[in-house]
Amino acid sequence: MFQGMKPAVIPLALIAALAVNVPAPVTAQEEDDGFSLMEEGGRLILRGLMEELGPALEDLEDLPDEMRTAIEALASEAGPAIMEVMRMIDEIRYYEAPEILDNGDIILRRKPDAPPYEAPAPEEPAPGDSVDL
């Protein structure tokens, strides 16, 4: 499916697809509602990438519908997963580069000299949200 594309265009397409799901700028009220600095940092990075890559991404409008659909599907599945990983990581500098095991698992090892890990507090459901049991 991606055989005819230039190698540099594929990463740009993936970044564009992920950035499509970036929400609007966070207001002060929303920050008080539990957004971590990592989440906000991720949003700012994606927003900055979109501004820098905007002209190059315009070329992607000519992608075949099948490819565009595949990229949008990847973004809708991978975007939330990436944000969840960002919520779990306290400081990226405390981690080694990702490692892919023989079975395909991807692991992020904490550096030996990093301070002890403190898990983030679990998110509370918003008032009025139901909890399925």
The strand order across the widest sheet is 1-2
Strand proportion: under 5%
Shape: extended
Q: What count of domains describes the coordinates?
A: 1
Largest sheet: 2 strands, antiparallel
| Number of strand segments | 2
SSE order, one letter for each helix or strand:
HHHHEE
Q: Give the termini separation.
A: 41 Å
- What's the Cα radius of gyration? 18 Å
Q: How helical, in percent, are the residues?
A: 40-55%
Q: What are the low-pLDDT stretches, counting only 5+ consecutive residues below 50?
A: 1-7
Rounded mean pLDDT is 71
- Count helical runs: 4
Q: Please identify the structural class as seen in this structure.
A: mainly alpha
Brief overview, please?
With 133 residues, this protein is mainly alpha-helical. It is built from four helices and two strands; from the N terminus they run H-H-H-H-E-E. Residues 109-133 are annotated as: Disordered.
